[in-house]
Amino acid sequence: MNDEHRLIPSDGLPIAQLSSALSDTLQEYAAKCDAAIGVTVPDFNCDSGVVVPTTNYVNGKCDRPNRLNRECDPNSRFQVISNTADAYVVAHCRKQGRGAGLYGDIAVIQHNKKNGATCFYQALGTLNGNVKAPSKGSAVWPWYSPASTAAIGCVRCHDNGPLVRSPYLTQLTGPNALPGAGDVSFNRDQPYYFVGADFASWKAYKVEVAGNLCIGCHRMGTSNLFNFDDGAALDLGIRATATSEIAKNPHSAASPIWMTPGQITYSQANADAAASIRACALRRNESPLPNSSTCRITQYTGVAAPNVPGRFTAVWEPGTQAEIQVYGWAYADYREKYDQLWGQGWRLHTLQPYVVNGVVRYNAVWRQSTEGEIQVYGWSYESFRAKYDELWPQGWRLRLLQPYVVNDQVFYTAVWRPSTAGEIQVYGWSYESFRAKYDELWPQGWRLKILEPYVVGGVVRYTAVWKPSSAGEIQVYGWNYANYRAKYDDLWDQGWRLKILRAY
Ligand code: HEC
Ligand code: HEC
Questions:
Q1: If you measure from the C-alpha of residue 503 to the centroid of ligand 2, how many angstroms do you get, rounded to a whole number?
Q2: Best of 155, 165, 166, 245 to mutate for ligand 2, by most ligand atoms within 8 A of CB?
Q3: pLDDT in tens, 322-362
């Protein structure tokens, strides 16, 4: 990294993002999960779940063994604790030979269908099936801590989306039917991301080979847990199309092959299709990731925004440049991406932190450039202003500037680039004043370079910087993510590129 790539740390002020480096207690994690997902994990009793059938169970083999441990495991019970239009909570209690009311492996997945937020809870041992809510903490029931749960690496198998739909659970019907069972549009393009500091580094990727049958209905996933040969693309897809499976009766109408739906016996073509997905997935640790029609690997977690409460303000300008975008990323992930892209000649084009439930998240857009830049994160207005005045005579101009608010205090994150152009700034104006200034400056040949709405005391305030220019622009104010995203896609095709994007 050259020395023009200067990162200036906070001047001792509380940067909320630092908390993202820490572990959560079980109760803290449960609180974040409930806030992001909108339904809670209550007390529940494993014995209230439906027994997962082990039909034609002879000599350790049955029609639909579980695919986690590759065994039939009678008297295991599954339950759908809640399933609304927005969210679900499912619990699985694996018996593993334990006595009445006891289980060997109890696991819960809590997921929001709209924003993709997902949480994992786990306990292992000889467990009382009368389970207490994680929100009550690990003193009342032996849930693993979030750090211990994360260490198991759920995403290494749960990489197609939150749920793994194997025939073991998709055979269930009625109120405890597995969400997504038999659904050919499930795990396809739905959002998926991980709540909580301990899970923040997990990533899932989709693996694509043009024309491959296995990506016709759902994605084929893999993850950034490179030490494991697990998950849909590397392992489950191979097993789902194999001539036989461990602990499973020979393929037949009573014990059909896992993939594809409706197929009962082995298909060489399906096995070949699964094998070429695996061959591509094995390249998941390459940098940059494979990106051709014969093998493409794309991160899909964290791309769809977890901005439940977020509103977006955006400005587009004409252009055809390539750009890379991330929405709602944690600071650690954003920084990793920044450093990776810097070396490849990408510079920040827009960046904005915003705060959801006290945690700072980042939306960022990069474009190709090799200019130097200076950045500061989370400074007070006075410190930021002093830096500004110091850099101005040295020929640095603001490229990005965004205030964000924690506990009604405004902090500034800013990026400067070498330039000697003029600029006009306003800080913390109301929408009406900002709009009047905008309309005044437009005919004089000033165009918005930076625009930041933020909320203090329930009122939206605008900080804006103009530069001399006479280019056209299209703006939207305060849209929700879905509408903003639709507009983005629409304008992209028409040759408009994002100039400014703010979430608050
Ligand atoms: C080694 C692979 C693997 C890992 C790691 C893994 N799972 Fe799973 N999980 C599976 C498979 C496969 C299924 C499908 C049920 C079956 O056939 O056993 C499953 C099913 C589940 C289910 C039932 C709902 C569903 O998705 O079908 C829950 C709940 C669950 N896992 C929770 C977890 C949690 C929590 C973790 C991390 C602590 C975890 N799993 C880690 C493979 C894995
Ligand atoms: C016609 C649509 C369709 C096609 C094509 C298809 N699948 Fe599936 N797949 C499903 C459905 C539906 C499920 C859920 C299981 C069920 O309900 O039986 C599933 C589940 C899976 C799972 C479990 C992970 C998850 O998303 O729940 C794997 C792994 C999988 N399929 C692999 C494959 C492979 C490998 C191929 C290519 C040979 C393939 N699929 C082709 C529809 C399809």
A1: 36
A2: 165
A3: 777 777 777 777 777 877 787 787 877 777 777 666 667 77
Q: To the nearest 10°, report the CA torsion of 50, 66, 271, 109.
A: 70
Could you tell me if 190 and 161 are in contact, meaning their C-beta atoms sit under 8 angstroms apart? Answer: yes
Taking a C-beta distance cutoff of 8 angstroms, is the pair 411, 404 a contact?
Answer: yes
Tokens 């509408």 correspond to 483
Break the chain into its structural domains and give their ranges.
22-206+244-266, 305-503
* Residues 70, 168: Cα–Cα separation, whole Å: 10
Phi then psi for 465, rounded to 5 degrees? Answer: -130, 130
Q: Quote the CA–CA distance of 169 and 188 in Å, as a whole number.
A: 19
In angstroms, the CA 26 to CA 197 distance is: 12
Query: What's the order of all strands across the beta sheet hosting 291-292?
Result: 221-223, 204-208, 295-299, 291-292
Distance from Cα 63 to the centre of ligand 2, integer Å: 18
The C-alpha atoms of residue 92 and residue 258 are separated, in whole angstroms, by 20
The closest of 263, 290, 314, 244 to 63, measured between CA atoms, is 244
Which positions ≥6 away from 423 have C-beta within 8 Å? 397, 398, 449, 465, 466, 467
Residue 364: count other Cβ atoms within 10 Å of its Cβ. 21
Count Cβ atoms within 10 A of the Cβ of residue 244 and give its class: 0-12 exposed, 13-18 middle, 19 or more buried: exposed
The pTM of the full predicted model, rounded to 2 decimals, is 0.67
